[in-house]
UniProtKB/TrEMBL annotation:
All copies of domain Thiazole synthase ThiG, residue ranges: 11-258
Function: Catalyzes the rearrangement of 1-deoxy-D-xylulose 5-phosphate (DXP) to produce the thiazole phosphate moiety of thiamine. Sulfur is provided by the thiocarboxylate moiety of the carrier protein ThiS. In vitro, sulfur can be provided by H(2)S.
Species whose genome carries this gene: Pseudoduganella aquatica
Family to which this protein belongs: Belongs to the ThiG family.
Residue numbers annotated as active site: K106 (schiff-base intermediate with dxp)
Protein name: Thiazole synthase
GO MF: thiazole synthase activity
Residues binding 1-deoxy-D-xylulose 5-phosphate, per UniProt: G167, A193, G194, N215, T216
Oligomer and partners: Homotetramer. Forms heterodimers with either ThiH or ThiS.
Documented EC number(s): 2.8.1.10
Gene Ontology CC terms: cytoplasm
Amino acid sequence: MRDLKNEDLLTIAGKTYTSRLLVGSGKYKDLPQTREATDAAGAEIITVAIRRVNIGQDPKAPSLLDVLPPSQYTILPNTAGCYSAKDAVYTLQMARELLNGHKLVKLEVLGDEKTLFPNMPETLVAAKELVKDGFDVMVYCSDDPIQARMLEDIGCVAVMPLASLIGSGMGILNPWNLSLIIEQAKVPVLVDAGVGTASDAAIAMELGCDGVLMNTAIAGAQDPVRMARAMKLGVQAGREAFLSGRIARKFAASPSSPMAGRMV
């Protein structure tokens, strides 16, 4: 039997997870590949775009829940494609009905179709309403430490600053801002958007992020299943490096073998 007390667990809204890699469910060639890549990633939390993926809205079409059942995974409905607080709140209320009262959700309110950058004023409005309505809100946001603190003060259970633009694969463009958010946060901080490859995921974890969420970097790879495995290893390696405590950067050489006590 596994000793969970001694494991490095991720806790979100009172529930613990062994994996710190969260994955999306879109852009795969079919549902079987979605399941195979999800399992290769070792992910336990799967985000679902309610406006784009069927989880029961269309009873005549195949449902994502047929291959990723809520009994085995935590389904995280999100508001991808929403550009106002009103639309985002309505979308997550619909998701709650489809998922039998499910409370954990991912909020994202976009500013425009070109950049998909978060609209922070609308995000704050939606977050307040959703928290008041009893949702556990994980929230996609800009890498602004002040905005992140405001979302935490509202009652969001996790903040999810972007590394770079959604689907861009540009990696972490502003590690300093991420570090400021991590330093002040009392809730989990997960990088969301912009990861392109396993080294990006490792860097996010080395900075001290609690987890990473990605979709395009896996689903858009030439071999999604293999990339999913690589991302799993990248997240694990980055977390281990963070917990280990890296050596300080220096502007001078330091020999691996000490000079004192030489035999000859």
